Amino acid sequence: MKNAKKAKKISKRGFTMRNPHDNIIVVIEMRKTHLRKGGGKMPEINLSFIRERRRELKLSQSEMAKSLKLRTPEKYSRRENGEYKFQAVELPILAQTLEVEIQDLYK
Fold this sequence. Notes:
Elements: E1 8-11, E2 14-19, E3 24-29, H1 47-56, H2 61-67, H3 73-80, H4 91-98
Helix pairs in contact: 2-3
């Protein structure tokens, strides 16, 4: 853990680190996880809300795939149908495309 020595505490909730190879500063936030009753599962994405909102905005699955930089509309369709999960990095883009807040994407 060589980089651990280079970390500087910036607040009660986070640290900042400099990556010596890329000369990039990375801020690492530590957040308390809010667990729901029933085993502490992660919140689920509300796929029906995403589908309905896309239809309200008259966006095709092809347009959604392009906004998420997916190669084919089928890859988006599989996510929207629950065959595959949306990736964490896709959620901000998805929310922006659907003109909603990220928390609106969860059940």
